[in-house]
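Run: sequence + pyridoxal-5'-phosphate -> complex structure.
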Amino acid sequence: METQAWQVLDRAHYLHPFTDHAGLRQTGSRVATRGEGVYVWDTDGKRIIDGLSGLGCVNIGYGRKELVNAAAEQMLELSFCQSFFKTTHRAAVTLAEKLASMLPEGLNHVFFQSSGSEANETAMRTIRRYWDLAGQPQRRVVIARELAYHGSTHMAASLSGIPPMYTAGGDIPLPGIVHIKTPYQYRHGPEMNADEFGIVAAGWLEEKILEVGADKVAAFFAEPAQSAGGAICPPMTYWPEIQRICKKYDVLLVADEVVCGFGRTGQWFGADHYGITPDLMQLGKGITSGYLPLSACAMSDRVADMLIEKGGEWAHGFTYSGHPACCAVALENIRILEEERIVETAAAELVPYFRSKLETFVDHPLIGDVRSVGLMGGLEIVQNKKTRESFPYEAKIGEACSTEALKRGLAFRANGDTMSLMPPLVITRPEIDTMFGIAREALDATA
Ligand code: PLP
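>> structure
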């Protein structure tokens, strides 16, 4: 079928996530057909370099047959297995054990679901349940951050700090969630040096804990580096200070590693990169490199022991918790990442190169800030570099730039006014050159 015919059907029946459908009716969708390595092709035969790894998930690149075979073999052997009624299966057990061996110390227990949003729901229910069982039911308040993105279910949207999430439907934010400023140095502390700013920004957590009342705070819930918020990467002093503050007030530390996990920061997990040991950690996306939907909520011994020893039956779970094919694909994905040393190679050979290319944009008249961690980079577009003034919202400058990039064969994500670049971890240096070459052309065409 021709591109246009697909677009007609698409328009008539398919509601897309996070999409202005009236706008889409005018432009039509790009119709993707296949992917290989870091490239995706469309029905017009155009090859596009995927500068956003699908949606921050295709860490291993497209077209790996081993993952397809792992899914097929598992489906032939045991296509589905519930784990509700005293039943388990080998793929889920093996994956849970494998994750426990990889995650920071003490995170020895894993609950599976399908999406990052659901993993965050599990984390929130766990936090509340934990404090009820610990005899401190008054600890209800969860502190999250502005510009956070934790997902689209009611609770995950409430945890998020992106205002349009609150008007998109539902009585959001749900009660018991408060937000603090995020370590966004370009906007909140440009006059400080990075180390100093990290400590100041962590202090906003302590201020909020004291304002709410330390005995009422259940947890601090945050992404190690914020992806959808615009690649906001904290200084190295931030997270250790956050951990210290959480310990001081006995507040649970919850790391949403749905994007940061599985190599994005240059280490296996954001917690490794920033040197923290959370009480709960949510994983998704890169756990299967996006080949099948799976997420995990890992819990420390402290938290899980409480649920197990005092909780009785826990009325929480999903039909697809620990789906066998998804677990088999995750195991195969991790095997390849390990055997091919993809995370380590990216850290040693690609991350410094990626950073050096990003830094060439410092002098661009439209770029106010350049930030990155690992292979997650952000170029913030501003109208006035001196005053840091942004373009008016109606200009939709990020979106305009991404449209220009797509015309030239690069897909990246515009997070507000920030061009977010987060390619698959298997990208090569020449492909990085291509990606940044197109990004520059797109910026120049947007100006
Ligand atoms: N947490 C973070 C940090 C994310 O970036 C996302 C999605 O982009 C989610 C959670 C939600 O994951 P999902 O879209 O799989 O529900």
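>> summary
The radius of gyration is 22 Å. The chain has two domains: 31-63+341-446, 67-339.
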